[in-house]
């Protein structure tokens, strides 16, 4: 049974039902990272929110087809690769690995697709050719630009008034010979940039602009019109506005029905910046002794439409909240009494109802977690009164397990301490490959286990594994 999900839609400025084109499947695209350095905790607010939304949608009965893209070519990447005397792949590889490692650390599920821009040049070139055929482009200054005057809906998402911007008008700092200051680059023709940042195209060798990457990759995997597009609020303008113009401009069809934007993350009420010394990556926070679970709990437990002030005090409070839940789960194992589920049944049903309704109401994760803690309190009270039977404890445990399918941190580590059949098969495969000295095959199995959050340690004669938390 599918429950309705209501989400704030930036396009209409209202909380609206999410109505999928092909129910019960939701096709959603999230703008991922530009891999020129390690993502910071603010980036992970958006990625964790996307993860919690995917899981919540499944909890409510939907299926999810999701894309998280990797921007592995843009101005900053090219500049920094040149400075480091590396090519594009060589420069971006460690940052892509860092992204995958941070996702594993934070318990973020791999979406169905994680496409890289450099692997989608044909799709981008095709899109630009279609835009040109429909009169949306022009050439100037060695680039192909999108002409926003050709797309009357431009500005609808961000509420920007483009009518006030006349063709030929300039902003002072604009040094390009564009028709309009807001026209944006689709393709930059061959320049003095390195050969590894240039691709052949029927309209001339060069490289894509940033915005076209997301239009090409989202439509390739999700179709020309899809259900939901997510990103940080800083992407509303111009990135998402440009994505709409490029996509609808090329297809003549609506691009995305529902736009979801995640608010900024602040560090102790201040914007994060390297100069203020409050710029944190996930490993920075772990180095200070905080746990991945507390980071995920803090990121997941604040409402995505409110700015989150992330601080180390908040992480301490998260640990306390988690330990309260984990402590109950452990005590559930120690219950003895026989008999029906009794009061525990009602506590579970009430908590489940509140939990579902909170998630369905614009992904209200603080309310959903309040329902979790409400159940923990009632179960603790029943335990204290000697009123919790073994079957009652089982009901509480299975309710918490269902809730954990959304948050991913509610059960204590020991509860998951067994390899799944798929993980065991990979583990065995690697051991077998090592025995046969097929090291490439062994490394591949290890990499796949790593991606699933299983860390291997080879000691003399034996291989141990542990789950990264
Ligand atoms: Zn994007």
What report would you give on this structure?
The protein has 469 residues and is of the alpha/beta class. The chain has 3 domains: 18-262, HUPs (Rossmann fold, 3-Layer(aba) Sandwich); 295-416, Isoleucyl-tRNA Synthetase, Domain 1 (Orthogonal Bundle); 421-467. It contains 14 helices and 14 strands. The strands form 5 sheets. The protein has a 4-stranded parallel beta sheet with strand order 4-3-9-10, sandwiched between helices. Residues 166-174 have low confidence and may be disordered. Residues 31, 214, 239 line the site of zinc ion.
Concise summary:
With 469 residues, the protein is an alpha/beta fold. It has helices at residues 41-59, 75-83, 88-105, 121-133, 210-222, 236-251, 282-287, 292-300, 312-332, 343-360, 365-384, 390-407, 421-435, 439-451, and strands at 6-9, 14-17, 25-34, 63-71, 137-140, 143-146, 184-189, 206-208, 226-232, 256-262, 265-267, 308-310, 454-459, 462-467.
């Amino acid at each position: 049974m599918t429950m309705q999900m209501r989400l704030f839609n930036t396009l209409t400025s209202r909380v609206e039902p999410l109505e999928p084109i092909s129910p019960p499947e939701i096709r959603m695209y999230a703008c991922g990272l530009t891999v020129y350095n390690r993502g910071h905790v603010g980036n992970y607010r958006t990625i964790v929110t996307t993860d919690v939304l995917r899981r919540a949608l499944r909890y409510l009965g939907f299926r999810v087809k999701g894309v998280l893209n990797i921007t592995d070519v843009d101005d900053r990447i090219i500049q920094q690769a040149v400075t480091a005397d590396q090519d594009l792949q060589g420069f971006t590889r460690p940052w892509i690995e860092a992204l995958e490692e941070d996702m594993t650390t934070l318990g973020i599920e791999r979406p169905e697709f994680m496409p890289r821009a450099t692997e989608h040049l044909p799709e981008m070139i095709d899109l630009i050719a279609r835009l040109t055929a429909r009169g949306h482009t022009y050439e100037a200054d060695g680039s192909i630009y999108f002409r926003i005057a050709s797309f009357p809906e431009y500005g609808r998402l961000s509420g920007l008034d483009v009518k006030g911007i006349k063709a030929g008008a300039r902003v002072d700092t604009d040094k390009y010979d564009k028709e309009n200051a807001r026209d944006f680059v689709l393709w930059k023709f061959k320049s003095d940039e390195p050969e590894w940042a240039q691709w052949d195209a029927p309209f001339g060798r060069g490289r894509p602009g940033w915005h076209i990457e997301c239009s090409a990759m989202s439509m390739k995997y999700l179709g020309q019109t899809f259900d939901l597009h997510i990103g940080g609020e800083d992407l509303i303008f111009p990135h998402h506005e440009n994505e709409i113009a490029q996509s609808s401009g090329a297809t003549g069809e609506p691009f995305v029905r529902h736009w979801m934007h995640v608010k900024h993350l602040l560090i102790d009420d201040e914007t994060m910046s390297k100069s203020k010394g409050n710029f944190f990556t996930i490993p920075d926070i772990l180095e200070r002794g905080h746990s991945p679970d507390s980071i995920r709990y803090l990121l997941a437990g604040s409402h995505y439409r409110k700015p989150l002030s992330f601080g180390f005090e908040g992480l301490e409070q998260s640990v306390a909240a988690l330990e309260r839940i984990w402590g109950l789960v452990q005590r559930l194992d120690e219950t003895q009494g026989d008999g029906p589920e009794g009061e525990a049944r009602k506590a579970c049903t009430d908590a489940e109802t509140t939990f579902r309704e909170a998630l369905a109401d614009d992904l209200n994760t603080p309310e959903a977690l309040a329902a979790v803690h409400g159940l923990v309190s009632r179960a603790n009270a029943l335990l204290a009164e000697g009123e919790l039977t073994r079957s009652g404890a089982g009901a509480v445990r299975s309710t918490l397990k269902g809730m954990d399918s959304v948050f991913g941190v509610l059960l204590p580590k020991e509860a998951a301490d067994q390899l799944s059949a798929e993980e065991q098969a990979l583990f065995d495969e690697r051991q077998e490959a090592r025995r046969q000295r097929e090291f490439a095959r062994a490394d591949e199995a290890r990499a796949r286990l790593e991606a699933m959050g299983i860390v291997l340690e080879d000691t003399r004669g034996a291989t141990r594994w542990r789950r990264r938390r």
